[in-house]
Amino acid sequence: DIQMTQSPSTLSASIGDRVTITCRASQSISSWLAWYQQKPGKAPKLLIYKASSLETGVPSRFSGSGSGTEFTLTISSLQPDDFATYYCQQYNDYWTFGQGTKVEIK
Amino acid sequence: QVQLVESGGGVVQPGGSLRLSCAASGFTFNNYAMHWVRQAPGKGLEWLAFIRYDGSNQYYADSVKGRFTISRDNSKNTVYLQMNSLRVEDRAVYYCAKRYGSGSVGPSYFDYWGQGTLVTVSS
């Protein structure tokens, strides 16, 4: 089974900060990685697919990069609407999520 | 627009059974594979089950294999999750999610999710 490990688990940041979340796979997943945003009491929302492709309608301040086993999600300038929990997901071999990264207000 | 609406959650005793439904609209349901994912209170997302667009193949997470069964009725645009031998640790919000891309060729992620239905297992 492919394990996904995100870091950090919690991140405190201010409006306008550049934020980076890392996701590591236990084996190579090529670029078969997605990122989701989840707010309390809501369903996850797709942000990024195939490691770096931005889903339609997602603000351009979100970007993804990486391939193989190491990936990052970057928010270039944190906005009030971005305080949420973020999950990576591999879809190379079945489907596995990272444990999540909560982005909190500093 | 795509809509996925789960129902069937509730309170059940350990060892009991429950069937969840997910009604789909806004897309050609019989062209798309579907998934079930759950989230225990305060925890992360756990993929549970997959069913091919035509129902011919299903895959399960080890945590539910042999206890849960995914099925679909394309005439009703609905996917189901039959949950048997429920345990306290199955308590979670259960989401259905749509596979991006029709058919079943190649890796794919989830592009739409329902709002979830809460299952509580308690005596």
Description:
The complex is a heterodimer of chains A (106) and B (123). By secondary structure, chain A is mainly β. Chain A has strands spanning 4-7, 10-13, 19-25, 33-38, 45-49, 53-54, 62-67, 70-75, 85-90, 96-97, 101-105. In chain A, the strands form two sheets. In chain A, strands 2, 4, 5, 6, 9, 10 and 11 form a seven-stranded mixed sheet that branches. In chain A, strand 5 and strand 6 (53-54) form a beta hairpin. Chain B has 123 residues and is mostly beta strands. Chain B is 0% helix and 50% strand. Chain B has no helices and eleven strands. Chain B has strands spanning 3-7, 10-12, 18-25, 34-39, 45-51, 58-60, 68-73, 78-83, 92-99, 110-113, 117-121. In chain B, the strands form two sheets. In chain B, strands 2, 4, 5, 6, 9, 10 and 11 form a seven-stranded mixed sheet that branches. A four-stranded antiparallel sheet of chain B has the order 1-3-8-7, with no helix packed on it. In chain B, 38% of the residues are buried. The interface between A and B is medium-sized, with 23 and 19 residues.
One letter per element, helices H and strands E, the order of chain A comes to EEEEEEEEEEE
Q: Helicity level of chain A, as a percent range?
A: under 10%
SS strand fraction of chain B: over 45%
Pattern of helices and strands of chain B: EEEEEEEEEEE
Number of helices of chain B: 0
Oligomer: heterodimer
Percentage beta strand of chain A: over 45%
Biggest beta-sheet profile of chain A: 7 strands, mixed
Rg result of chain A: 13 Å
Q: What is the topological layout?
A:
The complex is a heterodimer of chains A (106) and B (123).
Chain A (H helix, E strand, L loop, with lengths): L3 E4 L2 E4 L5 E7 L7 E6 L6 E5 L3 E2 L7 E6 L2 E6 L9 E6 L5 E2 L3 E5 L1
Parallel strand pairs in A: 2-11
Antiparallel strand pairs in A: 1-3, 3-8, 4-5, 4-9, 5-6, 7-8, 9-10, 9-11
Chain B lengths: L2 E5 L2 E3 L5 E8 L8 E6 L5 E7 L6 E3 L7 E6 L4 E6 L8 E8 L10 E4 L3 E5 L2
Parallel strand pairs in B: 2-11
Antiparallel strand pairs in B: 1-3, 3-8, 4-5, 4-9, 5-6, 7-8, 9-10, 9-11
